[in-house]
Write a structure and sequence with these properties.
There is one protein chain. It is built from three helices and eight strands, in the order ββββββββααα. The protein has about 180 residues and is α+β, with helices and mostly antiparallel strands. It has one domain. It has a five-stranded antiparallel barrel with strand order 1-2-5-6-8. A hairpin with a 3-residue loop joins β1 and β2. It is globular and about 50 Å long. The N terminus is likely disordered.
């Protein structure tokens, strides 16, 4: 099964990428996280489910990448298919990291990112995509959801437990805590 959702983008792809230090409004020392994306019809769909990149770079007609500032949240979905149907489904919710933060090495994510959720297989990917849809139904942008919630989802997936719903009360508490810290 191929899950095809449009790629979210804050900026239109460009054929002439800017040097990383020349991105408008960013200091030259900002370490950007580069997330590789691809689409090969009936074979591979590697796309963003949510996230607001500061720039999209087109590499060729099948590949592009998205650049994120430190602290940005995003979800990347990977669907690989063969003649017999879906072969691999994966969803990663990631947080881009700064120079001094700990990060994990993830293929296609340079230099790495903090892994908040890793869903493997169609069942887990569909469950997390349903959570993202429910969050958007509440009028909340998934990039603004608490990292603690995403980690809880990850641990529940690992344990085979039911996934928790995200509520407007949790979101209000998270936003209030961010303002106070």
């Amino acid at each position: 099964m191929t899950i095809s959702l449009p790629m979210a983008s804050a900026a239109q792809p460009t054929d002439q990428p800017l040097p990383l230090h020349a991105l408008p409004g960013l200091p030259a020392t900002t370490r950007l996280t580069r997330v590789s994306l691809a689409f090969i019809e009936r074979r591979l769909n590697l796309y963003l489910r949510f996230g607001h990149p500061v720039q999209r770079l087109r590499q060729d007609r099948w590949r592009d990448c998205a650049l994120f500032t430190p602290g940005a949240h995003l979800a990347r979905v990977r669907c690989e298919t063969a003649d017999g149907g879906a072969v691999r489904s994966q969803l990663l919710v990631l947080q881009a990291c700064g120079r001094t933060e700990n990060m994990q090495r993830i293929p296609g994510v340079e230099p790495g990112a903090a892994l908040l959720v890793q869903a493997e297989g169609q069942r887990q990917v569909r469950a997390v995509l349903s959570l993202v849809d429910a969050i958007e139904t509440l009028g909340i942008d998934p990039v603004d959801v608490s990292p603690a919630y995403w980690r809880t989802v990850h641990h529940r997936l690992d344990a085979g437990m039911p996934l928790p719903a995200y509520t407007t009360g949790q979101h209000a508490a998270w936003l209030a805590g961010r303002v106070l810290s």
